Amino acid sequence: MTDPRDDGDGADPSTEGVAADAESAGDPAAGADRSPSDDPQSPAEEPAADGTDRPVAESVETPGEPRTLDPKVRVEWIVGPLVGALLTAAVAGFITWAVVFEYFPVDRTTSAVAVGAGLFLLFAVYGAVRAVFLYRSWRYVVREESLYLTRGVLTKVQTVVPYVRVQHIDTRRSAFERVLGLSTLVVYTAGSRGADVTVPGLTPDTAEDLQSRLERLAIASEDEDAV
To answer: How far apart are CA 217 and CA 209, in angstroms?
Structure first.
């Protein structure tokens, strides 16, 4: 009788057990034939998509979270210059009525009204257009080490106020701002006269929150500077 173990198709159970133990133990010789490119790379080993490791809040070009002013500040910026425009138109109309009327083809009253109304409309249109574009240009950013401001219509102004130079911070509200429900933040800094920075067009709650936050950052920067 033929022994089943002598058949070519039969596998030795002891050999199968040794091979299984080698695979489970992770024999280095078993993976020697594999190329390193066959191993999956972890996401941590992949290079960053962009070449910068600097936090966004530290960059002036992308300064943290830019914030705009309250839209009601446009009313303040429009109505304020209208008072001056009205006074200018009244003075120009009076001069026209008293002196220059003889150079106009109509009577003095009509000439005075025409000159005054024309100047008032000119200043009013200019003030309205300026207020709209100024509102669109106003941005302020609370960065990690400084307060960043940018604004301007024809000339763009960028201001950086380091917290180590901040002396104290106030909020103020004029009578017209109280009517509109607005407030202005004033940051007093160390340095030459006129170096104070104002952030207009804030709601009272926003102004108080911003004041508290800037005060905390200023105190923290003083502690770090002392160390």
So the answer is: 12
With a CB cutoff of 8 Å and minimum separation 6, the contacts of 33 are none
Tokens of 197: 């920075």
∠ at Cα 122 (72, 81), nearest 5°?
A: 40
Per-residue pLDDT tens over the stretch 28-62: 444 444 444 444 444 334 444 444 443 333 333 43
Pairing of strands 146-151, 157-162: antiparallel
Place of tokens 């104290």: 168
**CB burial of residue 225 (10 Å; 0-12, 13-18, 19+):** exposed
Instruction: Tally the C-alpha atoms within 13 A of residue 74's C-alpha that lie toward its C-beta.
Output: 14
Neighbours of 114 (CB within 10 A): 14
Residue 94: which H helix or E strand, with range? helix 73-98
**pLDDT per residue as tens digits for the range 127-175:** 899 999 999 999 999 998 899 999 999 899 999 999 999 988 999 999 9
Instruction: Write down the pTM of the prediction.
Output: 0.63
C-alpha to C-alpha distance for 215 and 48, rounded to whole angstroms = 36
